[in-house]
Amino acid sequence: MELVLIDGNSLINRAFYATPLLTSPDGTPTNAVYAFLNMLFKIEKDLSPKYLLVAFDRKEPTFRHKEYAGYKAGRRPMPTELAVQIPLLKEVLDAMGIAHYEKAGFEADDIIGSYAKQISLSTAIFTGDRDAFQLVDGHTSVYFTKRGITETDVYDVNNFKEKYGVEPQQVIDLKACMGDQSDNIKGIEGVGEKTALSLISTYSSIENLYKHTDELKGKLKEKVENGKESAFLSKKLATICDSMPLELPLESLEIKPLGEQAKRLFIKLGFLNILKKLNFDLSGEEEKKTEIEKIILTDSGKAKEILEKSDFVSFVFDDKINFYNGEKEYEIAFTQNFLDEGISPEDVSVIFKDYFASEKKCVLLDKKKTRRHLEKYGIKINCFCDDVSILKYLTAFTGRELTINGLCEEYSYSPDFPAYALNEICKTLKQELKTQDMEKLYYDMELPLCDVLYEMENVGFKVDENCLNKMSVSYNEKLKNLLNEIYTYTGSEINVNSPKQLSDLLFVKLGLKGGKKLKTGGYSTKAEVLEKLADAHPLVALILEYRKVAKLKSTYIDAMIEIVKKSGDIIHTTFNQTLTSTGRLSSSEPNLQNIPVRSEEGKELRKAFISRFENGCIVSSDYSQIELRLLADFSGCKALIKAFSDGVDIHALTASRVFNKPVESVTSEERRSAKAVNFGIVYGISGFGLGENLKISTKSAQNYIDKYFEHYPEVKAYMESNVEYARKNGYVKTFMGRKRYIKEINSPDKNLRAFGERASMNMPLQGSSADIIKLAMIKVFSRLQKENLKAKLVLQIHDELVVDCPKEEMQIVEKILKEEMESIPLTSVKLEADVNSGNNWYEVK
């Protein structure tokens, strides 16, 4: 390929929505530029073009706007995080010596069309805009971006008609008939894609179509005749101008080797991994200049002396120990054997114990992990610690665990000075925390919670090994019985865990309808597919039941039996504080938060969780309808506020309004439907989604939603305001100020945009619920300590806290849970916690 033409606006837009938010060391958003560059280098590698041009749109109206003032009207505004990256991309292209061009009154498409048509070279056009299909010819192919920007479909003269049913040059006639919603091109009213394809396949062009309107019949003829003016205008608007003067000569588009200017800018933006992929020599210039001195310590006494004189230290505990005290970087040199010069690992306690026991300050990458590491040496942390992983989580969520090397690369610091780098990154993130107004969230919630989680992990939750063993035997028997029942329908043994064998059995041999075809040729056997077919054949329900039982046995029962064998009968899960976008905690190894609560088998598994105290008990407290209470409070919905204040059954109330009958006449089925509506509204559910849940038509489900909003108009206004806030600011936030950036909210893809809208509606509620349970954990933990009780907080799961305590402390623990959980104030609704006790976790429900 000799010439590559790129639609800069189209691809940077797709890059932005396809790539998690990234920032340069100074906080500038860079995700779209970063992804664009990766695509650019992939193009150069795959196609080896000699010439390359990136075309951009301009803000001014084009000649199309003069033809039709409504052209592209209604497009959502570009998010600020994307808008700032367009001039940045141009700066990067300049530094790389890559030609880019824009012209007032024209669009990027016109620039691309003019170069493609006027220069007779083999040409590849990269775009996410289908308008470019009209440019496909004998020497021009279109690489149409699909998911993200690196995955493309290639269209040339040989395959285009096979795919779309028309010739490339007929694309404008197709749009003349069917219009283009994304550009607000109207087309012929009432004519969709299928009819447009039929018309153009028959008549080749709209000019010819309007010469033969007498051949059309009925309503179609009427639509076409009435839409003539719009059709010709639409064709004009959809036609790419290919006659612009080529102001950049071909030789100026030649790709040049990257030089020092590009290197310096990439370093400034933190794109070090791109430079490494391009085999740049980064020695001396790779990282921010480090003027400090690094000293290798081989004497434990000297190391201890330095720490005693230091009021502040940043520590990195990795395969070696580094610390920085504001003046110098120190590295502990450990001995490998008694002949080596250095410090023995046994001296770690001697060196660090006093510092961490003091009231001085320090910076750590991950306080909880560091505490776990230091406790092996008998070191307890008492000093104030900034936690960089939490700071990063709040200010620039990635969903990944952090490493010091990864941070050094991202912020352009040398990994040879990790403690110094950690301190500098901490300062950057704390400034960002202040800018984003999240200091209260950090200091009053997330930092104290880190200590609570550490103690909860240490305490663990006791399990009854004998109970687990009995359940394992029982589940084995259940699985055998289920297999035997399955084999009575199959006539022979099959591997129930094989998707291919199940696909053949259900959709080929049994001929079940409604399956989801896969690209590989078979049918999907995922749970959501089979659940819709559960009534179609008894075998489907048996397979679903088998999978459920098998998963419980392998994921929980057998896994916990192995843990007990290795480590004893206390299960120590890990609580992950920085891995979810909503602020909720997750748990792993094992994931106790995912134990099913709806199935009887899942509930039964909770019987294995018992008290560590002799004749002890488990006390659980669960927030009652917390997200609905938050919805009432945040929206100011008078009807919901009054209902919660009066202690009314909220689901029965909603049922009475949706079904237009007195509360006392509401049936259990109607209440169940209203409950689905209530909680569905919280998650921004659609008529289709609610219909799927309730197994009713989309129309009926949408009617339920419409009636809900009719009776609770403040809720609708609140949800809409969340969406508009997200569109304008790019994020929504919780009542504690936690922010979630929602890049999908302004996506051109309607499915992604719909996801962004649902997330905008739900996150302030779900995130605030997460904030509240975290505050409750801190309060409950503190109160248990203050009351000098033996009781231990052992688990948080969704909106529930679980405490293990001696029998004699049960009543005071119940009181503490209820008081502390209900003490978190809202504006107009009171939180309510339901407290229950039992001999095991199962009995508290």
What is the element layout, followed by pairings?
Elements (H helix, E strand, L loop, with lengths): L2 E5 H11 L12 H17 L3 E5 L7 H5 L12 H4 L1 H12 L2 E3 L6 H11 L4 E5 L12 E6 L6 E4 L4 H5 L6 H8 L14 H11 L2 H4 L8 H9 L1 H11 L21 H10 L2 H6 L15 E5 L2 H9 L3 E6 L3 E4 L3 E5 L15 H10 L3 E4 L2 H8 L9 E4 H8 L8 H8 L6 H18 L3 H21 L1 E3 L1 H26 L8 H11 L17 H6 L5 H30 L2 E2 L2 E3 L9 E3 L11 H6 L3 E2 L6 E7 L2 H10 L2 H9 L3 H9 L9 H15 L4 H8 L3 H14 L1 H17 L1 E3 L5 E3 L8 H37 L5 E6 L2 E6 L4 H13 L10 E6 L7
Parallel strand pairs: 1-2, 1-4, 2-3, 4-5, 7-10, 8-11, 11-12
Antiparallel strand pairs: 5-6, 8-9, 9-10, 13-14, 13-17, 15-16, 18-22, 18-23, 19-20, 21-22
Helix pairs in contact: 1-2, 5-13, 8-9, 8-12, 15-16, 17-21, 18-20, 19-20, 21-34, 22-25, 27-33, 27-34, 29-30, 31-32, 32-33, 33-34, 34-35
